[in-house]
Amino acid sequence: MQQPGDAQSQSQHAQHVVVMGAGPAGLTAAYELQKHAVPVTVLEKDPQFVGGISRTVEHRGYRFDIGGHRFFSKSQEIEDLWSEVLGNELRTCGRLSRIYYRNRYFDYPLKATNALFNLGPFETIRCMSSYAWARIHPVKNPQTLEDWVSNQFGHRLFSIFFEVYNEKVWGMSAKEVSADWAAQRIKGLNLGAAIKGALLPKPKAKKGKGTVITTLIDEFRYPRLGPGQMWERVRDILRERGQTVAMGQSVEAIRHANGRVTSVTVRDAQGNVSEVGGSDFISTLPVRELVDKLEPAAPDAVRQAANSLRYRDFLTVAVVVNKDQMFPDNWIYIHDPTVKVGRIQNFKNWSKDMLADPKTTCLGMEYFCFEGDGLWTSSDQDLVELARRELVALGMCQPGDVAWGVVVRQPKAYPVYDDVYKQHLKVVKDYVEANLPNLWLVGRNGMHHYNNQDHSMMTALLVARNIATGAHFDPWKVNTDAEYHEEARFDEEDRSGRLVPKAAPALAHVEK
């Protein structure tokens, strides 16, 4: 296999793209570039796994995700790409997720009749009164998560179904989280629509305006061996086609001169340092790290803006339980404030092939934290014991049922949408575009956007085409509408008569 340093020997005038990071965005960019016969070198810090936060970790024959990763998209091109890479290894998986609150399970996405019935008549009256008040007296120009959700559901339902969980996720009050996050993640959902959908008969699905694609709600695709299988296969394809995917390569510096990035300095696990040159550079690094690695250094204002961007970290405690069945959900949101766990994945219900022993169950106990805090620095043994205690406290098993567990820590899992992140991000973005035009930012951390996997892939496809064909697509427009998290509406037909998603960021039309 070509070593990363070999790229330095290539002519600086020859087209050669260096991709920093082998997550969904980085590998998608490389995959698209090789289709255009553009040589590419992918540099990945992890010595073993590709896929970034979408990787699948294996331990004792059990495979588990860093969070759950559904494979569905309103972009047919993304769906086709997944099929092209994995084919029959992509399985259709039924979707079930619920909220655990006060020893009861509530459907998610929220269903009005289920939620209000479980809350009981008195709480229902309070919730409906709160919702009515919110409709009459909405917060004008909502700036925070609390304001935005209260406008959609009423403050009472916000406090029940959103406040505790989102404060677990972000480690801060919902008053400090930007409304942008809520508008992006739960756009189009409100109590009025939920009640209407519950009480009125559903229209028969038919082609034409307003058709709801229910499969996006009820089922999705999923690789037989987890999402990491997708990215492991892309890595293998790239190598088979003569491209370089170098593992265990930590980017130490990004060197630039005369208005262009010229090379990156990398260090391997043995401490060996090499230079990787190229014509274009694609970064999936967290924006804060990217700016910190620029040599010469960026102006003080740019560095200050980058350092002001915040991240939420994440750890998974995967535990194997000696029980054949535990709950039918793919995952459960834990809104109980008495436990620290925020979400529980049941990997058996994603794919039975994820388990070494089908008589057991593998759960992913997900904890949101900040790197360096008490949870993050706890020993693996203590974290497994915490997961055991909390499963017992939630009534899901007995102490002796947990056979063993393993911990995976994921730094910078979530870019934080606080009330000033947009201003800071704009400073960095403007600097890079004006001063380093051959440096491209893609993906969740690369753009400090809470992208889904398919959004990250879209940004990468656009950038790859800009480099390979001289196009002028704007990857920053990709994530402007994420409404299809729970449904998609097909409103138009193309010239062939095929339905196309109205809100999808069609790649051919996302121009600057």
Protein architecture, described:
This protein is of the alpha/beta class and 512 residues long. The chain folds into three domains: 4-54 and 226-308 and 419-480, FAD/NAD(P)-binding domain, CATH 3.50.50.60; 112-200, no CATH class; 311-415, Polyamine Oxidase, Chain A, domain 2 (Alpha-Beta Complex), CATH 3.90.660. It is built from 17 helices and 23 strands. It has helices spanning 24-35, 76-86, 112-119, 121-136, 145-153, 155-170, 179-185, 191-199, 215-218, 228-240, 287-292, 300-308, 374-377, 380-393, 421-435, 444-447, 453-469; strands spanning 17-20, 40-43, 56-59, 62-65, 90-94, 97-101, 104-108, 211-212, 219-223, 244-246, 250-257, 260-267, 273-277, 280-283, 294-295, 311-321, 331-334, 343-346, 361-369, 402-415, 439-441, 489-493, 499-501. It has a seven-stranded mixed β-sheet with strand order 7-6-17-18-19-16-20, with helices on both faces. A five-stranded parallel β-sheet has the order 10-2-1-14-21. Strands 13-12-11-15 form a four-stranded mixed β-sheet. α1 packs parallel to α17, α4 crosses α5 (145-153) and α12 (300-308) crosses α15 (421-435). The two termini are 38 Å apart. Mean pLDDT is 86; it is low at 6-12, 205-216 and 481-512.
Task: Tag the structure with descriptive keywords.
512 residues, alpha/beta, seven-stranded mixed beta sheet, 23 strands, globular
SSE order and pairing:
Layout: E1 17-20, H1 24-35, E2 40-43, E3 56-59, E4 62-65, H2 76-86, E5 90-94, E6 97-101, E7 104-108, H3 112-119, H4 121-136, H5 145-153, H6 155-170, H7 179-185, H8 191-199, E8 211-212, H9 215-218, E9 219-223, H10 228-240, E10 244-246, E11 250-257, E12 260-267, E13 273-277, E14 280-283, H11 287-292, E15 294-295, H12 300-308, E16 311-321, E17 331-334, E18 343-346, E19 361-369, H13 374-377, H14 380-393, E20 402-415, H15 421-435, E21 439-441, H16 444-447, H17 453-469, E22 489-493, E23 499-501
Parallel strand pairs: 1-2, 1-14, 2-10, 6-17, 11-15, 14-21
Antiparallel strand pairs: 3-4, 5-9, 6-7, 8-22, 11-12, 12-13, 16-19, 16-20, 17-18, 18-19, 22-23
